[in-house]
From TrEMBL:
NADP(+) binds at A157, W176, T202. In the C-terminal section; belongs to the HTP reductase family. In the N-terminal section; belongs to the cytidine and deoxycytidylate deaminase family. GO terms for molecular function: 5-amino-6-(5-phosphoribosylamino)uracil reductase activity; diaminohydroxyphosphoribosylaminopyrimidine deaminase activity; zinc ion binding. SUPFAM superfamilies: Cytidine deaminase-like (SSF53927), Dihydrofolate reductase-like (SSF53597). Substrate binds at R190, D206, L210, R213, E289. PANTHER family: 2,5-DIAMINO-6-RIBOSYLAMINO-4(3H)-PYRIMIDINONE 5'-PHOSPHATE REDUCTASE, DIHYDROFOLATE REDUCTASE FAMILY PROTEIN (AFU_ORTHOLOGUE AFUA_8G06820). Pathway: Cofactor biosynthesis; riboflavin biosynthesis; 5-amino-6-(D-ribitylamino)uracil from GTP: step 3/4; Cofactor biosynthesis; riboflavin biosynthesis; 5-amino-6-(D-ribitylamino)uracil from GTP: step 2/4. This is Riboflavin biosynthesis protein RibD. Signal peptide: none annotated. It comes from Flavobacterium frigoris. Its cofactor is Zn(2+). Binds 1 zinc ion. Its EC number is 3.5.4.26, 1.1.1.193. It catalyses: 2,5-diamino-6-hydroxy-4-(5-phosphoribosylamino)-pyrimidine + H2O + H(+) = 5-amino-6-(5-phospho-D-ribosylamino)uracil + NH4(+); 5-amino-6-(5-phospho-D-ribitylamino)uracil + NADP(+) = 5-amino-6-(5-phospho-D-ribosylamino)uracil + NADPH + H(+).
Amino acid sequence: MKRHEKYIQRCIQLAKNGLGTTYPNPMVGSVIVYEDRIIGEGWHKKAGEPHAEVNAINSVKDKSLLKKATIYVSLEPCSHFGKTPPCSDLIIKNEIPQVVIGTVDPNIKVAGNGIKKLIEAGIEVTVGILENECHELNKRFFTFHQKKRPFIILKWAESQDGFISPKTKSEQKPVWITNSYSRQLVHKWRSEEQAILVGTQTVIDDNPKLDVRDWSGNNPTRIVLDQNSRIAENSHILDNQVKTIIFSKTKTNTDKENLTFEILDFKKNIASQLADAIYKHQIQSVIIEGGRQTLQTFIDANLWDEARVFKGNIFFKEGTKAPILSGSYLEKHIIVQDELLISRNHD
Ligand code: AOF
Ligand code: ZN
């Protein structure tokens, strides 16, 4: 691996320490190198707290070395006064002569201005090292800022013969397609996203909590598409335990602090209206867990980024068919804890 790649790789590794705590900010890592030796490291821990570069610079013991060092950062140093002052100013102030950047910051407040500032100050700037990896690291943040919509993950489990549920459902217990390890993995996935979305039928059939009880982490905001306000008042979804947004045809009032009702025009494209509404709530990512109709609506509108599909060993012979993906995508087959997970990434 070449020198720049090696240090940006380390930045990515450091950035990942912030997984789950930096939102709405991206995960960013930084290292400071002098004579091919790392003399300082840092990452962004939490929104409102210092950025990666600040922590890296502060960690350098002999500050006089900064004038001869290179600072590596996985994302362009910022140029704006946000919750913290601009990192590009700090780099200039410390007279660091060389900056190597993974990728440009898509945030309109920065978007190349940090790089411009550095170049204008006479600093040698290199941009685009392990760019794809740096982009992938913050795929939710990039999609949110560039496409003005949340990063959308579709998730379902299907039987060997391609059904997401059998024809006759038991009143007492749900039929599980996946094993308990995969169900735990799904709770981990939920904790990694800002929101989880399902349609009414899923709420009526399964009365789900949509939380992360098998994993420690944040519960995502619950979003339900309930066109005709059919959800029973005693459903888990309305328990006020977690922030919840319900989209219906007509407005409902509530005094529950965690509950919001919003209106959609169900005669128009639902997927794009939902993507817009979720974006307005500043939610950067959503995992959609069914049912078939809700998933298919997003597929047909070409509004999805990843599909994560479990293929169980069970056969249903008849029932509700699994959604059908369209458009171009890359498919990966992964074995997770005895089960097959098919992961598809939209091009
Ligand atoms: C950096 N280094 O480590 C991060 C950056 O509100 P603020 O001041 O925290 O600014 C947040 C914005 O700064 C965020 O949306 C993104 O554009 C950039 N994040 N920039 O130079 C960092 N986390
Ligand atoms: Zn910054």
